[in-house]
Design a protein that fits this description.
By secondary structure, the protein is mainly beta. The protein has one helix at about 130-140; strands at about 10-15, 15-20, 25-30, 40-45, 55-60, 65-70, 75-80, 85-90, 95-100, 105, 115-120, 130. The structure holds dTDP-4-keto-6-deoxyglucose.
Amino acid sequence: MPVPLKVKRCAHIELKQVVDEKDGVLSIAEGSKEVPFEIARVYYIYGLSYPKAQRGLHAHKELEQVILCINGSFKLMLDDGENRQYLYLTDPNHGIYLGPKIWHTMFEFSSDCIILVLASDRYDEADYIRGYDQFIDYTKSLR
Ligand code: T46
């Protein structure tokens, strides 16, 4: 059982899985099905052999995403402006849904880690909040 999430606007996502015994496993993520939005963009992150590598350190105003660790492992920190939680991602069939306005950081990657991200919209730098103080002010202004 995955650890319960105390961070708002986030959820565990289980992909559909077809296990072909000796011939491997197929995991499926369909928009508006396993993934709770239509997928507009896919990107992936790899080459994470630097032990102190960190990614993320931002929030999105509107973007929704599902983050999956499809190889290796890493730690994901989620912060909704009031609650903070650390998760350890290792399962290629299990993702985390991040709704809008979630400060997130990724770190402690295994050197073979590959992160796959499914996003609800195309890249837009104007949707990023890249300062934590600015993120806190933004979430407070919406309460
Ligand atoms: C997120 C986490 C999980 C693009 O031009 N197009 C893209 O689709 C993306 C994702 C990035 N970029 C550019 C923007 C920056 O100049 O690539 C550069 C690195 O992006 P960033 O520093 O935002 O990378 P991460 O790994 O910290 O964050 C990424 C996503 O940007 C972000 O939305 O939530 O992965």
